[in-house]
Amino acid sequence: MRTTLLLLFAIAAFARAQYVPEPIYVETYDFLDRLAAKGVVEFDAPIRPVSRLRVAEALEAADERRDRLTAYERAALDRHLREYGLERGEIRGENDNYMSIAKYDPHGRWRLFAYRDEFFSVNLDPIVSFRYQNQGDESWRRSRSGARFYG
């Protein structure tokens, strides 16, 4: 019994089971699809969502071929690289302990809350949108707010 428990704890210490799917509505998918159509990256993901790590790997590949991108695509790539900075660090083996509360992370992305160590990670990002529309004599506005929690 003791040996079994010890073995389970040893396996758990080296295992990484967090699969964080990226929601299908994020614009990163469209960006990677355009780059794949240009032949810059290989990103064939007919079944979505895919993991944030897989998206980060595709962005890393695009960053290596930055010279094949337009100025607009390079700016968009930089924005996406900031968003997936923590996952890119994980790909490179940079599992530094990190905690941030309402400030920028080391990759330049503002986060409401982020925590990462070698065994666990958790993030909390605010979601806020506002839309104002005017048509003829009528106008309306719509606002939404919420949070995205993932780890």
Give the fraction of residues assigned to helices.
25-40%
- The residue ranges in which pLDDT falls below 50 over 5 or more consecutive positions are none
Helix count, per DSSP?
5
Average of per-residue pLDDT values: 85
What Rg do the Cα atoms give? Answer: 19 Å
Which percent range describes the beta-strand content? 25-35%
Instruction: Characterize the main sheet.
Output: 4 strands, antiparallel
Oligomer: single chain
Structural class: alpha+beta
How far apart are the first and last residues' alpha carbons, in Å?
32 Å
Instruction: Write the H/E string, N to C.
Output: HHHHHEEEE
Reading side by side through the largest sheet, how are the strands ordered?
A: 1-2-3-4
Shape assignment? globular
- Total count of strands: 4
Question: Tags for this entry?
Answer:
151 residues, 5 helices, four-stranded antiparallel β-sheet, alpha+beta
Detailed description of the structure:
A hairpin with a 5-residue loop joins β1 and β2. The radius of gyration is 19 Å and the shape is globular. The protein has 151 residues and is an alpha+beta fold. It contains 5 helices and 4 strands, in the order αααααββββ. Helices cover 38% and strands 28% of the residues. The chain starts with a helix and ends with a strand. It has a 4-stranded antiparallel sheet with strand order 1-2-3-4, with no helix packed on it. The model has no long low-confidence stretch (mean pLDDT 85).
